Nucleosome assembly protein 1 like 4 (Myotis myotis), 352 residues
Amino acid sequence: MEKLTDQVMQNPQVLAALQERLDSVSHTPSSYIETLPKAVKRRINALKQLQVKCAHIEAKFYEEVHDLERKYAALYQPLFDKRREFVTGDVEPTDAESEWHSENEEEDKLAGDMKSKVVIAEKEAEAAEEPAPRGIPEFWFTIFRNVDMLSELVQEYDEPILKHLQDIKVKFSDPGQPMSFVLEFHFEPNDYFTNSVLTKTYKMKSEPDKADPFSFEGPEIVDCDGCTIDWKKGKNVTVKTIKKKQKHKGRGTVRTITKQVPNDSFFNFFSPLKASGDGESLDEDSEFTLASDFEIGHFFRERIVPRAVLYFTGEAIEDDDNFEEGEEGEEEELEGDEEGEEEDDADASLKV
């Protein structure tokens, strides 16, 4: 065994690999800090204290941002209320309100003559057709279908219910209250449940963690609460009834029992997992489910509600896709540059 070890250690490639490994270990930041004199380490600790104070100031900054969000939400709300009126058909937009210049305006102008020729025919056809639908049918349901993050949650039996969704609102916590926001889903009367509004509350934290203050990067969702859905009899899509056969051990007789088990549905969104607050950690699947829930809540608040019409038409989705493609392209270019630099370095070392 000793002879084999001696042979291995005499191999120049093995020795070079070991030296490279030792060099990489010796040059890590933490190992460098360990080599510093005690007086320098003391000053580094003082810098860390300053960094913690910076994190607390940053937390105050985000609290003020939340106050600004609340202020401007009140300014947006009249516009969102009017959006709801147009969507539901309670109010018909005026000619001025419905005027919109598209990007293809020149093409539209060239096609104007052709369009004018069919206007009369269209009006005659409209007179013979059924009355025009109220508002914009299936507005929010269409958004659910267009956005992958939401469509993945929607089952076929959820669709008829979501067609009754008339509005989604975001409400921010009041001044002086713990930071949070509420998503309100407003439904018209339907055959599935008696609630007119379903709510989801997201609780947020905007302060550095005492155990790890340097991980603070702004407010984060830490928990959420749903609501009770008052389902009408036989309409609860979040559960399904299954039949099971049981055999009696002694008599050998068989009986059939029925029981309800959970069922996949978007409406499980209103019965979320609870974040562990008692020190017990969640399993990996539960953590993933909770993180996905937080991401969806944030997406509703930041993207869907403020830009609903663009997710209805698909324009916002195209913008998101283009942005992601751009990021990927930049990463590929950077990787290429790095490879080029490495090659240049290699050439330089050969020349030396």
About this structure: The first helix runs from residue 2 to 9. Residues 146 and 314 are 7 Å apart (CA to CA). The longest strand covers residues 197-205. The chain is about 50% helix and 15% strand.
